[in-house]
Amino acid sequence: MAKKTGNTKVNKKPDAEKLIALYMDYVLEHEKTPRSVYKFAKDNDMTEGDFYKHFGSFEGLRKAIWDKLFQNSLQVMEKSKEYASFPNREKLLTFYYTFFEVLTANRSYVLYTLNENEAPLKNMEQLKTLRKRIKSYAKTLIQDGNSEKSMKLFQQNEMIFSEGVWVQFLFLLKFWMDDNSAAFESTDVAIEKSVHTVFDLFDNTPLERIVDLGKFLWKERKA
User: Where does the Tetracyclin repressor-like C-terminal domain start and stop, copy by copy (predicted)?
Assistant: First the structure.
């Protein structure tokens, strides 16, 4: 008699990407994080060893999720032939537009995981790897810009710029989380205005942009 195969599970060892997908699905379906690696592994027909082969803990997996979102954004940008020829200002704009599109595609998970704990700093721990990635990306941009400036006097400080971009990202992330506009159009406007403001600060022509950004934020706050 032939055996049924329709519901047969294939015990294929999961890779890191599969574990990330399983974890995100669990969080979204149960509206909570798994209580233990043992239970999570058992529920997904694998061993604890299968999990630990790729991640040392759920915390490590959560950090890897943000890293994956970042890498996916870079891959999308690098597929564009025009991106490489963009000036740094346009590259940063492209990065933010792309990254927040990726976040929007995973908005339910992002909102849950960044609001899971009552203590905001606890929620931010998962962004440590992402912080390094974004700061490194920002340093690359400023290094390219400095290489085109013959006089050191006009070169920009990589450390200050990269930290500024990280703070800017956190601001935009919070703005996006609170954004109720259709297709998150307000976030797009905030991205454009804040990026221009940051670059203008480094170009010593900040006043007009800062006033423009301030007016926009005040308008959004009162809306």
Answer: 91-217
